Amino acid sequence: MTIDYYNNNAEDFFYNTVEADMNEAYKQFLSYFNNGDFILDLGCGSGRDSKYFLDKGYNVTSVDLSDELIERASKFIKQKVLKLDMLKMKFENDFDGIWACASILHIPKNKVSKVLSNCFKALRENGVLYASFKYGDFEEVRNGRFFNYYDEASIKKVVENSEFILEKIWITRDVRLGRENEKWLNIILKK
C-alpha cells in the first residue's frame, strides 16, 4: 500500500521534499563521522539527503523500495539507487552510519525491532543510526500510507529491547512549508 502510494505519487513527492532544509539533523548526524566514511541512506526517497552526503565527501549507498523514487533519485544523485526492503536487508559491518530519515516510520511497530536488528548488523563498531518519526504513540493509515508514531517514552522502550545505545533524542518541527505545526521525533543510536 505505502509503496503503491510512492510509485503513484513519485513526481509530487520528489518536488515536495527535495528542497527541505535538513541542516539541523545533518549537523547532529555528521558530527560522528570523518570525510570518506560510509553511509547507508535507508529509504532515500527523493535522494535529497544522499546528494548532501555525497557533496560533503562521504561514500553513500542509497536504497529505497519504490521503483519510481529509485529512478528519480538515481538521476538526481547521479549514481544508482538500490532496491531494498529494510526488513530483509543483509548488510554486515558495511557502514559507519545509517541515515533513516522518515523511512522506518512506514514499518509496523511490531516489526521495527527487526529493522533495528538489521541496522545494527549493517553498522561497523561504534556505528551510528539516525532515524526520525512523526511524533505521537500510535499507528495509522493516512492518504494511502502507513505511519508509526513514537514519542520519547515509546521509542525508549523500543531501543531498550535492541542492541543499540540511545545516544540522543530531540524534537523538531516539520521543515516543509505549510507543515510547521507537525512535530518529529529524532533519535541517534550507537552500536
From TrEMBL:
Which terms are listed as keywords in the entry? Methyltransferase, Transferase
Instruction: Tell me where in this chain the Methyltransferase domain is found.
Output: 39-127
Q: Which SUPFAM superfamilies match?
A: S-adenosyl-L-methionine-dependent methyltransferases (SSF53335)
Against CDD domains, the record matches this protein to:
AdoMet_MTases (cd02440)
The organism's superkingdom is given as Bacteria
- Which InterPro entries does this entry report, sorted A to Z? Methyltransf_25, SAM-dependent_MTases_sf
A Gene Ontology biological process term: methylation
The record's GO molecular-function terms, alphabetically, read: methyltransferase activity
Span of the secretion signal? Answer: none
Q: Which PANTHER family match?
A: TRANS-ACONITATE 2-METHYLTRANSFERASE (PTHR43861:SF1), TRANS-ACONITATE 2-METHYLTRANSFERASE-RELATED (PTHR43861)
Q: What is this protein called?
A: Methyltransferase type 11
Species this chain originates from: Ilyobacter polytropus (strain ATCC 51220 / DSM 2926 / LMG 16218 / CuHBu1)
